[in-house]
Design brief:
By secondary structure, the chain is α/β, with parallel strands linked by helices. It is built from twelve helices and 13 strands. The chain has an eight-stranded parallel barrel with strand order 3-4-6-9-10-11-12-13, surrounded by seven helices. A two-stranded antiparallel sheet has the order 1-2. Strands 7-8 form a two-stranded parallel sheet. α7 links the parallel β10 and β11. α1 packs parallel to α2. Pfam families: Oxidored_FMN.
Length: about 375
Amino acid sequence: MTELFEPLTLRGTTIPNRVWMSPMCTYSAFSEGSEIGAPNDFHLAHYASRAAGGVGLAVVEATGVLPEGRISPYDLGLWDDSQIPAHRRLAAAIAESGALPGIQLAHAGRKASMERPWLGGGPIAEDEGGWPVAGPSAIAFPGYAEPAEMTLADIAAVVAAWAESARRALAAGYEVVEVHGAHGYLLHSFLSPLSNNRTDSYGGSLENRARIVLEVLDAVRSVWPEDKPVFLRISTTDWVAENPEDGRDAWTLADSIVLSRWASDHGADLIDASSGALVPAKIPHRDDYQTRNAAELKAASGTLVAAVGRIGDPAVAQELLASGSADAVFIGRALLRDASWANNAAAALGARGRFIRQYDYAV
């Protein structure tokens, strides 16, 4: 039995296998003649090729719920109904190529208004096309612009924006929606004491710092069908024991375990377990630097968990599932190198990938 290529049913939605394309920003949404934030031909080719290559689920990259929530001016967005048709075209291309289409909805918070990585990746000044950034507190990511501390009205508006973007994602034909709560972006920055020193109902205790995440899940669930799954991506740890400047605790795996239980109670069907990126940190170089946390999170929280991070060997991916360490794997860099990684993994493991099943030849 090859668990990696067994279907997984969440609510009323069946994903044909457990090899999933991880959401990875491409910073390619804005091109001549295209709608700002809308997918273009590049995205069709990029995602459809991985879908045809055998993944069971292709999750479209971080898509801004508000224009100021984009990481860069070149991010995808779903903050306006005018963006739905282009997303509908992308979701249909993924589905027609054999995978379920999913989308990650995001707000970059204090890490917004950035240049594309291959052009240096630094903050873009407002007079050069950037915009003001916001976060839970006026604490900047090192080297970035200081964010404005969000008011209660700002928080409520962001929560509402997530629901509206989820409504648009449904209209576009996506089958899975993932809330981005990782990598130092807005929701993660509320979770971690390193970036959140609020004294109101959104700061202080773990319950308060998690409040916005649970409100977003509730808001998304209010518009998302009961038979379709919602995922939550989190950073399981900041990779910082404590802040050397003021001694405050960071976000930890223990916190993630508690959050995962709460998230499940608020309608999250699976935790996508990543890590880091809230502050510069020393991250272990071992290949299982994230997957071991995913395994511990799954065991301790009782939630369904997808592992991600340096999973490039099909045998390793299969063992993560066979051992009960994860319920699925998100593949990132390996899929960028090989769009048919999933079908090739099926052949290597003696399972049946999409093209093996359709055309009966070994890849």
